[in-house]
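User: I've been going back and forth on whether these two constructs are worth ordering. Before I decide, could you fold them both?

Assistant: Sure. I'll take them in the order you sent them. The first construct and its structure tokens:
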Amino acid sequence: MSSPVVFIDGDQGTTGLQIHERLRNRTDLELFTLAAAERKDPQRRAEAINACDIAILCLPDAAAREAVEAIVNPAVRVIDASSAHRTQPDWTYGFPEMTMGQAERIANARRVTNPGCYPTGAIGLLRPLMQAGLIPGNYPVSIQAVSGYSGRGRAGVEEHEGQGAVNAPLFQVYGLELAHKHTPEIQRHAGLAQRPIFVPAYGAFRQGIVLTVPLDLRLLAPDVDGTTLHACLARHYAEAAHVRVLPLQESCALKHLDPQVLNGTNDMHLSVFPNIEHGHVLLSAVFDNLGKGASGAAVQNLNLMLAQQ
């Protein structure tokens, strides 16, 4: 029996390069990419995507839609790493740990949309708490996140690692119009009744994310506190291989959160920081924006799909 053919379309960007690196030594699959001269040839790309078993799209949104439209072979399965299909109901959301049965849905899906980097942390924190009814659907959710500059793709890497790197900013908050493209994805898959406020930023480090969600306990049910919230997250991820909820004692001993601590992995650490005196709780997620936030998640989804190939 021949090995399944996995085609990476767009393997020269940050996500595509990382996926290729994670897969290049695998012997259980045949990895295929296009030569440089063929990457912009629509006919050659269409031939390649229709000849594979699973296509991983690492393309801008418009190009990802075009690639999917070019598929005429019903046997071709797709993992789309762009944001083109993340809120589409006929695509399976590629966050295996999000809810019970999601890994099985991904394993059997024909079309899987890889989560965005920021949404991975936000949904990872909020979805279990929303499902358990500990946070009401109309809660005014506010999310702050800082990512490494690779989150900007090639432009960010060039700015910080190219000839003009000495002039690269140390820190920059963006998305000031409060219309970041990840916000609808967060709202849909976290189960929020209203749009959250999302404020992202880039730091002068290559990769890694710290994402935080502050909660005011006065807006939650009287019996909900930091211990309740932590217990819910701990139960939800008890069997998860790639998501760890830090024990309350371990979290409370932390003096800071390092966005780079999980770089190079497909893992995510979630923490709960309660302030009993003021009735506040801070939720946090730390992970690699190129790992669990992109290429690591794509490979995790690929492995699930290959098991059902």
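The second construct, handled the same way:
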Amino acid sequence: MAMPLCGHQLNHFFCELPVLLKLACEDTGGTEANLFVARVIIVICPLVLILGSYAHIARAVLNIKSMAGRRKAFGTCASHLFVVTLFYGSAISTYLQPAHRYSEKEGKFLALFYTIITPMLNPLIYTLRNKDVKEALWKVLGRGTDSK
């Protein structure tokens, strides 16, 4: 993407497309439209495939006879869906908004969120599914365990 910038200072963590489009000195309408199509393909298509696979998983889980088995399967899926929602929610908010509506403060927060915070939370979310880790966390927080 070769586009003249108006000499403004880039006030962001890294070169995000919405930030660069906002700093451009020329009309970005055509570029914005092309980039929007590319972003839809890159962001929405994988999300649709992931949600479609979860629909198939949900149908399979509903066929499980035991309630304990269903609960365990849905618990695993819930943590996965939570991580997917965190990542794709912030990515969609960042990349699928028009450049003229882009907010620097909000953009910085969302960039920080999906590049740093979500990957940091990911292991924590999956680790908290382990019963021993949950008990240790409750002990550290001073609440002890009442489930014994």
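Notes on the second construct follow. The radius of gyration is 21 Å. The chain has a mean pLDDT of 78.
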